[in-house]
Specification:
- The protein has 340 residues and is α+β, with helices and mostly antiparallel strands.
- It folds into 2 domains: 3-163, 2-Layer Sandwich (60s Ribosomal Protein L30, Chain: A); 175-339, PurM-like C-terminal domain (Phosphoribosyl-aminoimidazole Synthetase, Chain A, domain 2).
- Helix content is 35%, strand content 23%.
- It is built from 12 helices and 12 strands.
- The chain has helices at 3-6, 11-26, 65-72, 78-91, 111-127, 189-198, 215-219, 227-235, 249-254, 275-284, 288-294, 307-319, and strands at 53-61, 96-106, 132-139, 149-160, 175-180, 207-208, 213-214, 241-244, 262-266, 299-305, 324-332, 336-339.
- It is globular.
- The N and C termini lie far apart (65 Å).
Length: 340
């Protein structure tokens, strides 16, 4: 046995895992990808059908949702979570994904689990025609305990300068349209785990009658991507702004796109809060105010729409069978989000 293996890093296993991963990654290639999988850096040609292109970059993780996935021994969703989260973060600025890269850090690399994890990443990339251009899979004994790992992603997108969404088009009188989330998405899991699992009130295999599923199934629902729903509306000039409701919930994210001298007034009674959030609030005796500052509460994306475009947008959403609500409006005032 090599000294490196004795120290906790198995190069032969890592090479075997990476060979399997290469096949999965190769399945995301598009004609624009120039470098083979495994090169020191990923390469792809720049799209030629843009007149004044702007690159948009984002990086993120899936937080302590990983703890739930590891405990449930189900890593099939968190990779797709990461891709979808990244896509949404680009989308709110008007951008389409160009390529994605991942970083995995394992205490002790598990070949089978790493492959399942990568399948989720690849599935998310394929759904958005986004090459997985490269990444890193590292074994780091001593930094991560055996059976634990961390996952992060980096995505670059592209948008025509004239189609950038940055809040400048938002003005008093605009309407806020909330789009349904698929659950917690990838935020608030530290609090959810504490009040549901660490407290001993529930187990991951507990059946939830109001949800019709187990707690593990509910907590591991895939973070929705809104790209195919909303990107066409961006290209048609129908949206003035978009806010991805992640950490910080509606107040912490909607304020990021507001211009000065404009407030967003949100009516929290205008949509149906899913049962999982009510369960968390009751189990932890969490105040309503804190719930609406930690969790998305059933709204994963907020679109800001001018009144002149509202009828068209609502018709488009209905035509795509989207669940949505008119949740508020933009009013004149200091830059803030007011929950009513």
């Amino acid at each position: 046995m090599s000294e490196y293996k004795k120290a906790g890093v198995d190069i032969a296993l890592a090479d075997a895992v990476k060979n399997k991963i290469k096949l999965l990654v190769a399945s995301t290639r598009t004609p624009a990808v120039l470098a083979d999988v495994g090169a020191f850096g990923g390469m792809m040609s720049f799209p030629k059908d843009y007149k004044d292109p702007v690159l948009v970059a984002t990086t993120d993780g899936v937080g302590t949702k990983l703890k739930v996935a590891i405990a449930a021994k189900r890593l099939d969703t968190v990779g797709e979570d990461l891709v979808n989260h990244s896509v949404n973060d680009l989308l709110v600025q008007g951008a389409a994904p160009l390529f994605f890269m991942d970083y995995q850090a394992w205490g002790k690399l598990d070949a089978a689990l790493a492959e399942v994890l990568m399948e989720g990443l690849v599935r998310g990339c394929k759904k958005h025609n986004c090459p997985l251009l490269g990444g890193e899979t590292a074994e780091m004994p001593g930094l991560y305990a055996k059976g634990e790992f961390d996952l992060a992603g980096f995505m670059v997108g592209i948008v025509e300068n004239a189609k950038i969404l940055d809040g400048r088009s938002i003005s008093p009188g605009d309407v806020l349209v909330g789009l349904a989330s698929s659950g917690l998405h990838t935020n608030g899991y530290s609090l959810a785990r504490k009040v549901l699992l660490d407290s001993g009130l529930y187990r991951l295999d507990s059946f939830l009658p109001d949800n019709g599923t187990t707690l593990a199934d509910e907590l591991l629902r895939v973070h929705r991507s809104y790209f195919h729903l909303l990107h066409p509306l961006i290209l048609q000039g129908k949206l003035n702004g978009l806010a991805h409701i992640t950490g910080g919930a509606i107040p912490g994210n909607l304020i990021r796109i507001l211009p000065f001298e404009a407030s967003a007034v949100v009516n929290t009674a205008s949509w149906d809060v899913p049962p999982i959030f009510k369960m968390i609030q009751k189990a932890g005796e969490v105040s309503k105010e804190e719930m609406y500052r930690v969790f998305n509460m059933g709204v994963g994306m907020v679109a800001v729409v001018g009144k002149d475009k509202l009828e068209d947008v609502l018709r488009d959403l209905k035509g795509m069978n989207e669940k949505f609500w008119v949740v508020g409006e933009i009013v004149k005032g200091k830059k803030e989000v007011i929950l009513q």
